[in-house]
Amino acid sequence: MIEAIDHVNLVVRDLERMTDFYRDALGFTVTKQVTISGAWIDETVGLSGVEAEVVYLDLPSGPRIELIDYHTPTGVEPAVANQPNVYGLRHLAFRVSDIESLVAKLRAAGVEFQSDIKSVPDSQVKYSGGVRKRLVYFRDPEGNLLELCEYR
């Protein structure tokens, strides 16, 4: 039986820049950094000669983010840019408690948002107890689509 989401793995081009963003801008804690290689990872991911650097980033609760930089074989560019309607995993959403403050902090750090904070209309999605969802999309330094969401 599935218990919870354990982690989300992002293959990155610039491990240092991405680590800085998730740690410094979003407040994750780096809990481990390791180099992986050997038959076990080759067999697991279906590649040969894998050598990669992995950074584990954690919050007080919820799934971990793993950033992985493949040295060999090198990472592969996607055929299509990361657009909201492309099939597959499209974005990571972070539940926050004070969306205005976090957006202001990120804007001050140079993060650009796709819009202002939006409220999901009750006519589209209605939550019990009169709770409303507010959200905003933005991208990390490598173009991965991220969402901040607040329920109140």
N-to-C span: 31 Å
Low-confidence stretches: none
> How many beta-strand runs?
8
- Average pLDDT, all residues: 90
Structural class: alpha/beta
Give the neighbour order of strands across the main sheet.
1-4-3-2
* Gross morphology: globular
Give the helix proportion (percent range).
10-25%
Order of helices and strands: EHEHEEEHEEE
Strand percentage: 25-35%
Helical stretch tally: 3
Alpha-carbon Rg, integer: 17 Å
Biggest sheet character = 4 strands, mixed
Describe this entry's structure for a reader.
By secondary structure, the chain is α/β, with parallel strands linked by helices. 18% of the residues lie in helices and 34% in strands. It has three helices and eight strands, in the order βαβαβββαβββ. The chain has helices at residues 15-25, 39-45, 99-108, and strands at 7-11, 29-37, 51-58, 64-72, 91-95, 118-119, 133-139, 145-151. A four-stranded mixed β-sheet has the order 1-4-3-2, sandwiched between helices. A four-stranded mixed β-sheet has the order 5-8-7-6, with no helix packed on it. A hairpin with a 5-residue loop joins β3 and β4. The mean pLDDT is 90.
Keywords:
152 residues, alpha/beta, four-stranded mixed sheet, 8 strands
Write the layout of secondary structure elements.
Elements: E1 7-11, H1 15-25, E2 29-37, H2 39-45, E3 51-58, E4 64-72, E5 91-95, H3 99-108, E6 118-119, E7 133-139, E8 145-151
Parallel strand pairs: 1-4, 5-8
Antiparallel strand pairs: 2-3, 3-4, 6-7, 7-8
